[in-house]
Design brief:
The protein has 26 helices and no strands.
């Protein structure tokens, strides 16, 4: 037990140190951790026999990591890029797996196509943890949204295809059986993940203690993933869906204190789990090399095959991304042509009473008119115009395509999935080494150069134009905050001397003797409470307005997140004022 505790302490120190030192050296911290793990496995004999149960990663580590990433994902950008994300998560994974299957069948004698596809499915999905490297570069927000969404959802495709390929080695292969299995896996994951995400918030909104609330949040990804896996579906997708539901609704349901506690504690969990995954990847290299020495392929041949597989994944990805971005660009131009018409419709919706008073169409096809109907149409038009502005502001070209291709890194899920291969798999150790080598080289080559690539191809930024746009964005945001605050009536009892109200703080209200407040303590206290409740009501109205704007996509996601964080901080500070201490 003492040795285990020492190892855990050392691992935490190494993870923290790599996180701090990596950026200063110009190297992503995951690469530093993998290197430390590799050196440790080769130098320290105690680490030479490290074996990690793949279930620990697939069901113990990845669900909370994917859940946390989904919670913090800007859902509006995810919705906007869902077409690209779907293509990258399904079509690209399937195509890459099949092409790699042919490659492995040809270069590994006696392997067969089905086992080749199984290894291809292991290597095909990009890794959400590895994709975190990209966020440290000056990359387009659309690219980030695509990569985040792809890495969150492509696991279901890869693992379903892996299971189908393994089954196909022992029985007749059925294409429609694979399609049915994938459909079942996704539908069950959507249902369970959505239900768990909703139930999670319904329970936690009734718990005021932030510590208890956050402790319960740690159980959510497992409550979503484990039952889903037991039903033969994708637990990882269920965890992602639960995270998306939580991320969308949390700001409307949970208190700022609870959300702040969640954010701080989940960041720590992410740091430890992400670092642990990459450290474990490096530590396993010695045992993998030892196992593969007994296979016919040999280490050198396995590494050469891994190089070829990595090159193929990049080429296939490039061949898929280029036409995908071309289609998305044409779609953006087509939508841009609709902008004048949408603006006319929006202008008409600004006078909803005229629409409600308009006569019914003679054909009788006019939809039922009501204020609710007009509001719904207004929201749809506003969202459509915001989408058009977003696509025009963030065009997709060869630079973004290059980034999407080169940022498609493999990582921990590839290693974990490889180790889940049955023990009777032909040349199992060789296949595991190939998967590990592809993941390691992907992190080293792509992860080590992505920053330089992005900076090299990044267009020159017109800083004056960017500052002007940011100023205009903030001006619109302040106008929205001011307008929403004006909707909250100010109670007469809250009107008073601002200096007097501000003076009635927690220090003066604490203790048994309130004589320092004078004989007018009670009236002053009442005015303070009235003003405090008014301010809280204003913050609530402003938060609702910001969340509505988020759902409509009319502001930049980062600007909105900063404004919501400021509101949360103000509310927490205000709620602490005048609060008696115990």
């Amino acid at each position: 037990m003492t040795e285990l505790l020492i190892v855990m302490v050392v691992a935490l120190v190494v993870i923290a140190g790599a996180t701090l030192v990596g950026p200063r050296l110009g190297v992503a911290s995951p690469l530093v951790l993998v290197a430390i793990g590799v050196v440790s496995s080769l130098v320290v004999p105690a680490f030479s026999a490290v074996e990690i149960d793949p279930e620990l990663i697939l069901l113990g580590i990845l669900p909370p990591l994917l859940y946390s990433a989904a919670v913090s994902l800007p859902t509006m950008n995810f919705r906007r890029e869902f077409g690209a994300i779907s293509g990258l998560s399904v079509a690209l994974v399937v195509g890459t797996s099949l092409i790699l299957g042919v490659f492995f069948m040809l270069v590994i004698p006696g392997l067969g196509f089905a086992w080749g596809v199984a290894l291809g499915a292991i290597i095909s999905p990009t890794d959400a943890v590895a994709a975190s490297i990209v966020k440290q570069t000056p990359v387009s927000k659309r690219v980030v949204a695509m990569l985040d969404g792809e890495s969150l959802l492509n696991d279901a495709t890869a693992l379903t295809l892996l299971r189908a390929a393994i089954v196909a080695t022992a029985a007749s292969f059925s294409f429609w059986g694979v399609v049915a299995s994938f459909t079942y896996s996704v539908i069950v994951a959507l249902l369970i993940g959505g239900a768990v995400g909703w139930l999670n918030l319904e329970v936690r909104k009734r718990i005021t203690d932030p510590t208890v609330n956050t402790a319960l949040s740690f159980t959510v990804p497992f409550i979503a993933a484990i039952p889903t896996e037991l039903l033969g579906a994708s637990g990882l997708v269920a965890a992602v869906v639960a995270g998306l539901v939580t991320g969308v609704r949390a700001a409307r349901v949970l208190s700022p204190q609870n959300r702040l506690s969640d954010s701080q504690n989940w960041r720590m969990i992410e740091l430890v789990l992400e670092g642990g995954i990459f450290l474990l990847m490096g530590l396993q290299i010695s045992s993998i090399l030892t196992d593969v020495e007994n296979d016919d392929a040999g280490i050198k041949a396995s590494l050469l095959i891994a190089v070829g597989a990595l090159v193929i994944t990049v080429l296939v990805r490039a061949a898929f991304v280029a036409p995908l971005l071309a289609v998305l660009s044409r779609r953006s131009l087509r939508h841009a042509k609709m902008k004048p018409r949408m603006e006319v419709i929006q202008e008409r919706l600004n006078t909803p009473q005229e629409i409600l008073d308009a006569p019914e169409h003679p054909s009788g096809l006019t939809p039922t008119k009501s204020a609710r109907y007009v509001n719904r149409v207004t929201s749809l038009v506003t969202r459509s115009l915001a989408d058009i502005e977003y696509f025009l502001r963030e065009p997709l070209g060869w630079r973004e395509g290059t980034t999407v291709v080169w940022a498609g890194m493999r990582g921990a899920i590839t290693v974990a999935a490889a180790q889940s291969l049955p023990t009777d798999t032909p040349l199992r150790s060789t296949l595991v080494l190939i998967a590990f080598a592809v993941a390691a080289m992907s992190l080293l080559v792509q992860g080590g150069t992505i920053g330089a690539v992005v900076r090299r191809i990044a267009p020159k930024v017109d800083q004056a134009a960017e500052d002007e746009r940011a100023t205009a964005e903030r001006t619109r945001l302040f106008a929205l905050l001011k307008a929403s605050a004006a909707t909250v009536p100010k109670p007469a009892s809250a009107v008073g001397d601002e200096g007097e109200i501000a003076a009635v703080n927690g220090d003066q209200l604490d203790g048994d003797d309130h004589s320092t407040a004078g004989e007018d303590y009670a009236p002053r206290r009442a005015r303070f409470e009235a003003k405090k409740q008014h301010h809280l009501a204003v913050i609530g109205a402003q938060r609702t307005a910001l969340l509505d704007a988020r759902d409509n996509g009319i502001f930049d996601a980062d600007v909105l997140e900063n404004a919501l964080d400021n509101l949360d901080a103000t509310q927490i500070t205000l709620e602490m004022r005048g609060k008696p201490t115990t």
